[in-house]
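hey m, so remember when u said the tokens were messed up on ur end? i reran from scratch. heres the input so u can diff it against urs
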Amino acid sequence: MRIVFDTNVLVSAIGWDGPPRRILLAAASGRHHLITTPDLLDELVRVLRYRRLQPVATHPLLPVVLAWLHRPAHVVLPTTRVNAIQEDPADNMVLEAALAGAADVIVSGDRHLLALCEFQGVRILTARQFEARCARGGSRE
């Protein structure tokens, strides 16, 4: 399955045990294909500078994850700009990544993205919802 992680999910995956980390590890093992963009990678690096995220920024897993995410197989370059979320235009980067990478699912904790439920055929789920779907053996309806 082709997945786009929103930045908040990546931060959670790096910093804490739980569904985001389990999904990230499943992707790292080849079970899923993670998709990102230069803009999302820049946002991740910027967010990790926040003082409250210092424990995540110094986590030993971070360099490994960043190196893995920067591999050309994961990075797509969006050619279409999206303006579906006016309340928080930065969220549109996630939608652009999903379209450019032909994603099946966006995994996010962001309320604006989750409110869409789906965008141009791409499901938008929380990490817990995604994990539950995979446990049931299904990814699409």
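this time it looks ok to me. The chain has one domain: 2-135. if urs says something different then somethings off w ur setup not the seq
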